[in-house]
Amino acid sequence: MSDPICRDLSDILRRHHQDPTRLIQILHDVMAVEGWISKTTITELSRALGLPRGQVEGVVGFYSFFLPEPSGQFRVLFSDNITDEHQGSRALLRTLAEALEVEPGQVRADGRVKIGLTSCTGLCDQGPALLVKGRAIGRLTPERLSVIAGLIESNTPIEQWPPDLFHVESHFWRRDLLLSTPCDPGAAMRALEARGSAATMAELGRSDLRGRGGAGFNTAAKWTACAAAPGPERYIVCNADEGEPGTFKDRELLAHYAHQVIEGMTIAARLVSAQRGFLYLRAEYQFLIAPLLAAFAERRSQGLLGPNILGISGFDFDIELHLGAGAYVCGEESALLESLEGKRGIPRNRPPYPVTHGYLNKPTVLNNVETFLAAAQIALHGAEWFCAVGTPKSRGTKILSVAGDVERPGTYEFPFGTTIRAILDEAGAKGVQAVQVSGPAGMLLSASELDRKLAFEDVPSAGSVMAFDQSRDLLGVTQNFVRFFAHESCGFCTPCRVGTTLNRQRMDRIVSGHGTRHDVEDLESVARLMRASSHCGLGHFAANPVVDLLRKFRPKVDRRLASLEVLPSFDLDAALGPARELTGRDDAGAHLSEEGP
Amino acid sequence: MSDPKNTFSLDGHEVPVTAGQTILQAAEASGSWIPTLCHHPEFEPHGSCRVCTVKLNGRTVSACTTPVRAGDVVELDTEELKGLRQNLVQFLFTEGNHFCPSCEQSGDCRLQAVGYALGVTGGHYNPLFPSRRVDASHPDVLLELNRCILCELCVRASAQVDKKDIFALSGRGIDKQLVVNAESGRLADTNLALSDKALSVCPVGAILKKRQGFLVPIGKRTYDERSIRERDLDRAKEDPQ
Ligand SMILES: Cc1cc2nc3c(=O)[nH]c(=O)nc-3n(C[C@H](O)[C@H](O)[C@H](O)COP(=O)(O)O)c2cc1C
Ligand code: SF4
Ligand code: SF4
User: Fold this and answer.
1) Distance CA B173, CA A119 (A)
2) Do A355 and A284 fall within a single domain?
């Protein structure tokens, strides 16, 4: 009766030195062996790691990629970003479900397969995309899906699937300062040694480099504060969680510029005297693990990583790879640190900040992938070189992921100060209705705002630019974003935990034609509440899509409302859903038609 | 009294502050009540319920977690903030299943008392009617998760005071839930004891000692006799932090 314990648990535990901070990595290994995590495995893990059982259960329950029950030999998850949706992902999902004769969301009776949705997988330049057993497949077409269906039906081990299915393409359409200037492995570190640590930190300060992960905090100020924090141990963390839907530039940077990113981390380590580093990679980017480990190994063999770097005694620094497990909130820096420690990704109370109380409460520098890359280039070429482009408040360039209704989706490097219109033109956008900059947490610009500039002081972007042409339903776009936040709220604080779900319900009602003015008023009050009282940035920004929609496209919303006055908060037809399911009926007679006005 | 060096402004009044105090501590010490649900003076501030949200120099923050300094300007009882706190309490009612008239905790419940004190007269948002567990397996204790507000006080008390880690949280977002430290998931299979601190810190009727619910008649309960505002301020006076 009792569940089986994971077969290879003792090997897995040994591989991870029974280290409780590695719990999430351990659970990934259990998932790889069993496909799910049984109750008895949780008990055994908690015993072996010396953790309360409830804590291990809580970690399993927090991360989307850890499953507490059997979920099929092949778990197929379609990326649910709006760009995937616009490229037909929903129809493709149904096609696959029909081919495999399985109900979406349910395990097929023989236990072979389960099909569902997951938050954006970061392949928006080659969507629609899916994950099967955690491995990414892009450029989905009915033809590729029928190949996939065949492989699942014949129970072909995933290792034997044709490799071209998993090929991730690369599309760099525009390279500017950072991406076109060479930076050979070790060159920036040698420049640092030649210039000296203090002078390099000053150079970084003069460059006015601001964090590329969203908040735009001054990088030199962060590193200086960490260097000044007391204590012998310090850590460098690279945030490669890249969970903001529509963003994939860090994926491209890690695939093609890994050495510069690692070099930036090593420079940070030298400047703040850190010995250990982590690269926190979102699990959706499994295909980057092998090349990143190879880059680490190569640099160790070149004396650029490990003990006595560049032959300098006492310059010791090494990097470990940590995988996330399907939780957008773990991109938030303090949640990421919790996750690195093997815990639920709940954002911490701040102050204190990570520069003094970071990983294991030790001083920690945490930056975005692109920030480290830029820091390496600045160490090599100097502040003046970097400041030659950009605006006075936003120096240098920004690397963007452009997707949606454009002819050339992919990665672009533009100087700060470039207009949104110029970016869209270069990517080949036609008939733009609106553009979402910086993902769902960012801002929705109408076609009349395209002359605004990419810059911290005007339109900031953590990377994503998604264009929507005239054919797109902007209410559907907002609905998709609101659904995303409801799925990704960590649940710690009341306003975000409840508000994201209330917003989702109201957007669902409005989009399906059952909304009223009352729903719109609720959306507004919930948005105010979430912005004002949430614990972290996720909750602060989660209502942005709703606020922008109502502010900039209100007539579109009003046209969709069932009624501007009455309050039918009960949907009769929806209430019959369970009865339809039980009786297996879905014909017209099993529906109540509610003619809208 | 109003030496600008060691006071801050609380709704326009100068209030003394000592180094290291949070907004909540300084306000309570001066006799101003700030409603709280996830807070308990014996535990580290948590900052999850957000009912204590105030404005510090124009920015909204949680009063329980945020330090205050001399010269700061704190807004507490503005119309905007009162409305915000009402909405937050409504959110908590909305996400659980609360039927006060039939609840053993009625009159002893902080959620109910804060709701009354803030003038929350209705739910406003449609209830989510979640499907949550009731665990009656333990001979002496009832776990009624329909009323859990996820404040984590039992989690903290069991870990920090009882050293038993009987409670934990699992799930995420609106599906977040309290779990107990047993493979069966049943309270009866934990080493919970009636004397555990974790049993006495629940601010609502989610963790109840069995056969005691109606020993004190309604009308004579904690917040029937003295309002939550007065009780919290009395407590702060007895135990200045
Ligand atoms: C909900 C949320 C998600 C975030 N996701 C990311 C992310 O995926 N990558 C990232 O670099 N920063 C992300 N951030 C910002 C980080 O908290 C942090 O500011 C950043 O990594 C710091 O690095 P930087 O100074 O180099 O930008 C996120 C913030 C929030 C609130
Ligand atoms: S705002 Fe949302 S994600 Fe952030 S702590 Fe609160 S519940 Fe968690
Ligand atoms: S726990 Fe409190 S708010 Fe909930 S039903 Fe009981 S008395 Fe009412």
Assistant:
1) 14
2) yes
Q: Which residues pair with B177 in a beta bridge?
A: B170
Q: How confident is the model at residue A576 (pLDDT cuts 50, 70, 90)?
A: confident
- pLDDT reading at A246 higher than 80: yes
CATH code for the domain in which residue A516 is found: 1.20.1440.230
User: What's the structural domain count of chain A?
Assistant: 5
**pLDDT value of position A569:** 57
What is the pTM (predicted TM-score) of this model? 0.95
How far is residue A362's CA from residue A360's CA, in Å, rounded to a whole number? 5
Tell me: do A188 and A310 sit in the same domain.
yes
Same domain, A464 and A440: yes
Question: Which range of residues forms the domain containing residue A93?
Answer: 74-166
Q: In what order do the strands lie in the sheet with B73-75?
A: B13-16, B7-10, B73-75, B53-56, B59-62
Instruction: Tell me the pLDDT of chain B averaged across its residues.
Output: 94
> The domain B131-210: what is its CATH number?
3.30.70.20
Is residue A2 predicted with pLDDT exceeding 60? no
Last residue of a domain, one of A166, A185, A208: A166
CATH fold of B1-129+217-241, please?
Ubiquitin-like (UB roll) (3.10.20)
- Of B183, B186, B187, which to mutate for an interface test with A (greatest number of A Cβ within 10 Å)? B183
Which residues lie closer than 8 Å to A14 by C-beta, 6 or more apart?
none
How high is the pLDDT of residue B119? 95
What confidence category does residue B1 fall into, taking pLDDT thresholds of 50, 70 and 90? very low
How far does the centroid of ligand 3 lie from the alpha carbon of residue B118, in Å? Answer: 15
The Cα–Cα gap between B83 and A372 comes to: 44
Residues A408 and A268 in one domain: no
A232 CB-contact burial (10 Å; exposed 0-12 / middle 13-18 / buried 19+): exposed
- Using a CB-CB cut-off of 8 Å, the residues of chain A touching B182 are 53
Q: Are A136 and A121 in contact (CB under 8 A)?
A: yes
Average pLDDT across chain A, whole number: 95
- Nearest residue (by CA) to ligand 2, atom 1, is A539
Instruction: Identify the pLDDT of residue A581.
Output: 72
- Same domain, yes or no: A427 and A335: no
Least reliable range by pLDDT among A421-425, A591-595, B19-23: A591-595
Outline which parts of chain B fall under CATH 3.30.70.20: 131-210
Interface ipTM: 0.96
For chain B, give every residue range classified as CATH 3.10.20.740: 1-129+217-241
Subunit contact A500:B87, Cβ cutoff 8 A = no
Task: Tell me, yes or no, whether A536 and A482 share the same domain.
Answer: yes
Residue A130 has pLDDT above 80, yes or no: yes
Give the one of B48, B51, B126 whose C-beta lies nearest to A535's C-beta.
B48
Please give the structure tokens belonging to residue A486: 């409801």
Rounded-to-integer distance, Cα A30 and Cα A26, Å? 6
d(CA A437, CA A461): 6
Ligand 3 atom closest to residue B98's alpha carbon, by position in its atom list = 5
- At A572, the pLDDT band (50, 70, 90 cuts) reads low
Q: What is the mean pLDDT of residues B158-171?
A: 98
Interval A212-228: pLDDT, tens = 999 999 999 999 999 99
DSSP string, B141-204: EEEEGGG-----HHHHHHHHTS----EEEES-GGG-EEEESSTT--GGGS---TT-GGGT--SS
Q: Is residue A159 part of a domain?
A: yes
Task: Please tell me the predicted confidence (pLDDT) of residue A587.
Answer: 72
Q: Looking at the domain assignment, is residue A1 inside a domain?
A: no
Same domain, A510 and A440: no
Considering the domain architecture, whether residues A318 and A253 belong to the same structural domain is answered as yes
Domain assignment of residue A596, yes or no: no
Q: What is the pLDDT of residue A596?
A: 35
A579 in a domain, yes or no?
A: no
Spatial contact of A21 and A235, defined as CB atoms under 8 Å apart: no
Distance CA A137, CA A190 (A): 40
Can you give the pLDDT at residue A565? 65
